[in-house]
TrEMBL record:
It comes from Casuarius casuarius (Southern cassowary). Belongs to the dienelactone hydrolase family. GO terms for molecular function: hydrolase activity. Residues 28-243 form the Dienelactone hydrolase domain. Pfam families: DLH. This is Carboxymethylenebutenolidase homolog. InterPro entries: AB_hydrolase_fold (IPR029058), CMBL (IPR042946), Dienelactn_hydro (IPR002925). It comes from the Eukaryota. The gene is Cmbl_0. GO terms for cellular component: cytosol.
Length: 244
């Protein structure tokens, strides 16, 4: 049996009233939130396996917008079913074949075009959580239009050297108690980046934190985790601010 990557019940969540709106961009639906003033800086937020409708990810979009960025979370599953809390982990490998985080290039291009042409964005960053963290890692190797990236607990896959020649500054965030990502994998990532990466990068591991820790809304946080969650989110924003 494959281990459930979430040690909290992702089904039990407080309600969340979103601050943004839904838009249709070519073949993709997206949730977008803008600050109250004009900005030419934008951040694409990539959801985890629970998809673009999940309240936690919309909270993150609103949070990024509150820091002064046009923030957008497209449906990178293109209308396909997200993973549900009632699904069985035995089926996860099959589900992943149909939801490949390495096949997001076309959608990323569509969203980048929209941000530049419709929203006036000149500098664009990307942040992604879990499944989205894997997608960020992939896109930061492929798409020079993305000025900076933050990958939060994206599983480190495909050990090949081109996996480490990032095009623009990228920050990797992990939880110390994440049982989907071993410490050896993080160490290897660090060694390989040192060897092959020509741009700024950073890796940080947050004490005692499990997979999915950085997405929780304040009322869903446990008091002992709150400081680390807030620190990880501030670190994410600081990285984006440094380069965008």
């Amino acid at each position: 049996k494959m281990a459930d990557p979430f040690l909290y019940d992702s089904g039990e969540r407080s309600r969340y009233r979103c601050l943004g709106q839904e838009v249709q961009i070519e073949h993709i639906k997206a949730y977008i939130c803008k600050p109250s003033f004009f900005t030419d800086k934008a951040v694409i937020v990539i959801h985890d396996i629970f998809g673009w409708l999940f309240p936690d990810i919309r909270y993150i979009v609103d949070l990024v917008a509150a820091h002064g960025y046009i923030a957008i979370c497209p449906d990178f599953f293109k209308g396909k079913e997200p993973w549900k809390t009632t699904d069985h982990w035995a089926d996860f490998a099959d589900w992943m074949k149909d939801h490949d985080p390495m096949k997001v290039d076309r959608e990323a291009d569509v969203v980048l075009k929209y941000l530049k042409e419709q929203c006036g964005a000149k500098k664009i960053g990307i942040v992604g959580f879990s499944w989205g963290g894997m997608a960020v890692h992939h896109l930061m190797l492929k798409n020079p239009q993305l000025n900076a990236g933050v990958s939060l607990y994206g599983r480190i896959i495909r050990d090949s050297d081109e996996r480490y020649s990032l095009l623009n500054p990228t920050f990797f965030i992990f939880g110390e108690k994440d049982h989907t990502i071993s410490y050896d994998q993080i160490t290897l990532l660090e060694e390989k980046l040192k060897q092959y990466c020509k741009v700024a990068y950073k890796i940080k591991v947050y004490p005692g934190q499990v997979h999915g820790f950085a997405q929780l809304k304040p009322e869903d946080m446990k008091p002992q985790d709150k400081p680390y969650i807030e620190e990880a989110r501030q670190d994410m924003i600081d990285w984006i601010k440094m380069y965008i």
